Structures are given as C-alpha cells and as structure tokens.
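Internal ticket #5521
Category: modeling
Description: The requester needs a full-assembly model to guide mutagenesis choices. All entity lines are attached below as received. Residue total reported by intake: 228.
Assigned to: D.W.
Attached entities:
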Amino acid sequence: DQQVKQNSPSLSVQEGRISILNCDYTNSMFDYFLWYKKYPAEGPTFLISISSIKDKNEDGRFTVFLNKSAKHLSLHIVPSQPGDSAVYFCAAEDSGGSNYKLTFGKGTLLTVNP
Amino acid sequence: DTAVSQTPKYLVTQMGNDKSIKCEQNLGHDTMYWYKQDSKKFLKIMFSYNNKELIINETVPNRFSPKSPDKAHLNLHINSLELGDSAVYFCASSQSGGGSYEQYFGPGTRLTVT
C-alpha cells in the first residue's frame, strides 16, 4: 500500500520555465514532508521540507506547497535549469511517532532541456 | 570530505553467499538508517539505529542483520543471499531521529545476486 504517491514517473520542461512536481499521500498522520533530489549513481540529497503547520516554504528557486485537506504537496522550481535534471523523491513522516521513519514516493524523473 | 560513505559501491555475488556492506558517517549524527531501493525504484526503510539502539526493524527477512559497533558505523550483513536481494542499498544518517532532521545519504551499494 503506497502511502506516498508520485503519479508522474517523468516530467520534461524547457530551461527557464517552471517545473511542478506533485505528490499525494494517504496517511493523515503524516505531518512533515521532504523533497529529495537524486542524481544517477549518487544517494538522495535533501532539497526542501515543510511542516504541516505551514502551507508554503521557499528556498531560492525551490518552493514547496502543502494542501493538507487534499493531502497533496507540490514542488515548484523556477526557473528550471539543466542541472536540475534528476529524480525527485517526495517523503513524509509522522513526527509524533517514535520510530523516525520516512516513507518515500517512487520518484519523478525531471529532465530540463536547454 | 565524504559525509556518509559506503563500501563497497558494487557487489556481485552468487546465491547462498554471505556478504556485508559497511557504512560510516563523519557528521556526528545520532541516528543511522539502511534503505533498499528495488527494481521498482521504491526507497524503503529497512532498519534504523539511534545511539546504537535498534529503533526501526521493518519486515525484513532474518537473513539481514544490522550491526552498529558505534554511533558512526552501521553495517549490514546479509546471509544466504537470494536473487530477490538484488537492489541498491543506501545508508543514511541524521542528527536525531525523524524527518525534521534531514537525512544524509551515502552513495549506495549496488548488490547483484546471480
């Protein structure tokens, strides 16, 4: 049972345009959400996070939006750059639990074309 | 200066063998994790240790045994390897448990069982 879903396996955008990556979750106990970026043959690297008490968090070109009622979050990258081409994983946590467990989505491959 | 390192990076072995993957972090973190990324690309938590104490033990076969000799190391030993164990295994660490402290991942170990 996938508790974190990234329904788009891939996304292709032009350099300079906006990239929007989507993530849905089913577990209402999740209250902390993270985005990780992964290049081939490397481990995932943390990108940005958001707590459920917020609906938006911004860091430079990256903004994460959270819609709790819809159990949906999205990552916006503006403007997109070729170096952003990677797999993006959405992850979620029930921080009230004591087991420090992150649940990951399957990832979305973003390709930014020059 | 590598934050989370894993050895080996690639491991090819035959069914029935026993193998170990080593992980070390130099970040001073309290919590370490092992994840498995299978052919379907899902990144799933296997184990988590906090200050050398087992915190998470997902439904992983008993053939998998983590060992944490100290806070900076979390090794993964696999007995009687099976074809289905072929995957990429990622080690990670965080300052404390939970996603509210971002997890730093190693580069991964690609295990191929023939």
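Resolution: model delivered.
Comment from assignee: The CA atoms of residues 42 and 86 of chain A lie 11 Å apart.
Ticket closed.
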